[in-house]
Design a protein that fits this description.
single chain; mainly alpha; two-stranded antiparallel ribbon; elongated
């Protein structure tokens, strides 16, 4: 039974990462030039629209959330429930 456990744990170990060496060049003036990594990040159209929707939801008033909740918006319903629970807790602590 011990052999089965040790065989399982060996197969579950993460592979060892392999480091990639950067190519170092020496210029004519004696300075060493080490390449730097450049990263370009682009957000897809779907990501941008999701970001805009999140911004709009964050800026929404409680009255707008309540109206959307009445029309079946699940996210608004959860938000209104969370706001009601927070208000109830505040009222209980206050009194």
């Amino acid at each position: 039974m011990t052999g089965a456990i040790s065989a399982t744990t060996k197969s579950m170990q993460a592979p060892t990462p392999v480091a990639k060496q950067a190519e170092v060049k020496q210029g004519d003036d004696g300075h060493i030039a080490v390449p730097t990594a450049s990263t370009k990040v682009t957000i897809s159209a779907a990501g941008q629209s999701a970001s805009q929707a999140a911004s709009q939801e964050a800026a929404e008033t409680p009255a707008q959330s309540a109206q959307e909740a009445q029309h079946g918006d699940r996210q608004a319903q959860k938000l209104v429930a969370r706001q009601a629970a927070t208000q109830a807790l505040f009222n209980a602590v206050k009194s």
